[in-house]
Amino acid sequence: MNKQKRVAAIHDISCVGRCSLTVALPILSAAGFDTSVLPTAILSTHTGGFEGFTYRDLTEDIKPISDHWQSLNLHFDALYSGFLGSFEQIDLVADLFDTFRSNDTLVMVDPVMADNGVLYSIYSPEMARGMTKLCAKADIIVPNLTEAAFLLDEDYIGENYSQEYIETTLKKLSSLGSKMVVLSGVTFEKDKLGAAAFNSETGKISYSFNDKIDGYFHGTGDVFGSALLSALLNNFPLEEATQIAVDYTHMCISLTQKAELEKRYGVCFEKAIPYLIKKLGLYTDQVTIKSENF
């Protein structure tokens, strides 16, 4: 019997606003993967651009869900964590990684906790420091520049950095324990934006860029991470997977900009999904999908 690849996405649910699970689930599913979800919190809206949002911490639900999954002898080809709802969840998710990881499981941690030099409102410095424990268990981590600074307990230097700083930061982040690091939000030219990737097993550092579109767009980190994981699970090497994620994120932003949509609701990644599927090489013609995911 053929087996479809299965991913466990461990993120929050924002009921309004395209981010976290409402982004990860459709993107990973469209890329051909059986995607299971474990919500870490439920918010009425995401936290960017909205006030008065409700927040429910789901810490107490994580272990019972994990225990039930274990009783079913579930196997996951990838474990993908993002925003965590409490300090206690760091240990719970770390234990979940230990429980479900096998030799062929890819563990990806997106340490979603900060941007533009500032921690998100419900995060504490203690929680930011604790995130290093989870990163140590990952095969790949995907921080932005602000999150990298918090993980390394360094000052955030904004955009005043050199290529040497980026490459030193990549290696420092890898020393936390992950084999691969993708650092998002990297730019060396005013009209280009993208990511830097480091594979500690090969020692190779690569860069992926596309045209920069001015403005701040919510949820793009989740779009980027989900597209990156989709490419990696479709057997693209890190360098190519990173470029696919950069290009797809750029397409999502471009479509949102052209449609003049209200930015606080996130980017219209849905309209760009056919572009991602084409980049992943899943369509052999208009109707047939390749079977590499099975």
TrEMBL record:
Keyword Repressor: no
Enzyme class: transferase
CC per GO annotation: cytosol
Residue ranges of every copy of the Pyridoxamine kinase/Phosphomethylpyrimidine kinase domain listed in the record: 74-263
A biological process term (GO) from this entry: pyridoxal 5'-phosphate salvage
Keywords: ATP-binding, Kinase, Nucleotide-binding, Transferase
Domain of life: Bacteria
Keyword field contains Transmembrane: no
Entry's EC annotation: 2.7.1.35
Classification via SUPFAM superfamilies: Ribokinase-like
Molecular function (Gene Ontology), one example: ATP binding
CDD domains documented for this protein: pyridoxal_pyridoxamine_kinase
Coiled-coil stretches noted in the UniProt entry, renumbered to this chain: none
InterPro entries, sorted: PM/HMP-P_kinase-1, PyrdxlKinase, Ribokinase-like
Protein name, per record: pyridoxal kinase
Naturally occurring in which organism (per UniProt): Desulfosporosinus lacus DSM 15449
